[in-house]
Amino acid sequence: MEKRSLAIFFFAGCFSAVTDGCHVRACQGVEMLLALGWRVVVYSYRNHHQWPWNPKGIEAFRTRFPGAELVLDDWSRKLAIVQKFKGLISYLGGRPAARALRTHLPGLTPEFDRLLRDPDLKLALVSYPWGMSHLNGSPGPHIIVDTHDLAALERIQDDPPGRPGPRSILTLKRELFYLGEVDEIWSTSYSEGLFLKSLLERDRVRIVPPALQGWSDPRPAGVAPTYDLVFVGSNNRWNPSAISGFLNSYAGWGLPLKIAIAGSVCRDKRVAAASGAELLGFVDDLNLLYASTRAVICPVEGTGTKIKIIEALSAGRPVFAAPGAFTGLLPGYEDCVFPLTRESVAAVLGDSRALAAAQVEALRYARAYSFEHVVAETRSGLAGAAETFVASPSALAMSSR
């Protein structure tokens, strides 16, 4: 059997159920490491407070990632105290904080300790900057942090324009400290990647957009559009207020459109109370749903790259989006991602040729986010890259609900 270098992938809790956008990104991280030829071990905490690993989640992991090993430790009160200390001292930065971040306490994480003793350990991919403080020591000789979304920028958006509050500034200081202590940084968002390049060593920051498999798969044939616009989202803290706010505004548009909402966001009382849309709940086959609509909406502001946009585009559906949703996209989206305004929606949906052109352009633009393209781009120049490139190891269903 060929001996392969070991890569640890760390996500604090269970992500195999894929109920949030961060879970989609986590799944992509595992798939990418497998495709890059690494022997992959996913390390996590069995009793995570938000996403615990139950038997169903473990089985889903094994089904989805047959080439990866799942290793779990228990999160304990002692680990929580150590993590809190690391988080506090990280606000100060400097050598004391760096030493604290790498502090390892024997006996607290026996499975993690076993991984650290593996002579083939060459790489660790850690989800979120704060993930560094949740580990019991340094996870390997070459450490990459996948930023997902920068918490500081999310906080700054909640502050008055041009006046970030002390908490936002401290959060940014801590995140930059974490990122300054690792070898490489992956940013899912184009704009956040450029932002980090301006504050850190440019060569250590890599823009790694969402990598979606199946963007070129055959679309469901013979499906007549049932809806004009569809929104797909989980029940996180941004989606319910965004879609309910859009529906309230849409009530005054005077356009006879059929709108549907899919995903756990339908459980929110504000969404259920809003009028003007059909609530579909959780949808198993998003490909079929996208084939059943003419276009997709994303009224969600915020930071990072909205995976729901990339999923829609990869299904050949143009997107009408809020201003903040544009910032994370790679350049070249202008002919398939449009402002979420009455004028824009009416112009595209009211012209069959314009809609057809936008659908074609959506597929063309989505090629930059295809799994094969992103993996190939990431493999190029990756320090400590494994020996072989392997084709996509498993079919990755679209799943941002």
Describe the structure.
The chain is an alpha/beta fold and 401 residues long. The protein has two domains: 6-212 and 371-379, 3-Layer(aba) Sandwich (Rossmann fold); 227-369, Glycogen Phosphorylase B (Rossmann fold, 3-Layer(aba) Sandwich), CATH 3.40.50.2000. 38% of the residues lie in helices and 15% in strands. The protein has 16 helices and 13 strands. The strands form two sheets. It has a seven-stranded parallel β-sheet with strand order 3-2-1-4-5-6-7, sandwiched between helices. A six-stranded parallel β-sheet has the order 10-9-8-11-12-13, with helices on both faces. Helix 2 (55-64) links the parallel strand 2 and strand 3. Helix 3 runs antiparallel to helix 4 (94-101) and helix 6 (151-158) runs antiparallel to helix 7 (166-180).
The CATH class assignment of the largest domain is Alpha Beta
Side-by-side strand order of the widest sheet: 3-2-1-4-5-6-7
User: The biggest beta sheet, please?
Assistant: 7 strands, parallel
- Summarize model confidence as the mean pLDDT: 89
Organism: Aquamicrobium terrae
Protein name: Glycosyltransferase involved in cell wall biosynthesis
In a nutshell, what does this entry contain?
This protein is of the alpha/beta class and 401 residues long. It has helices at residues 21-35, 55-64, 77-90, 94-101, 110-116, 151-158, 166-180, 190-199, 239-250, 269-273, 286-291, 307-314, 323-326, 342-349, 352-366, 371-379, and strands at residues 6-10, 39-45, 68-73, 121-127, 143-146, 184-187, 205-207, 227-232, 259-262, 278-281, 293-298, 319-321, 337-339. The chain folds into two domains: 6-212 and 371-379, 3-Layer(aba) Sandwich (Rossmann fold); 227-369, Glycogen Phosphorylase B (Rossmann fold, 3-Layer(aba) Sandwich), CATH 3.40.50.2000.
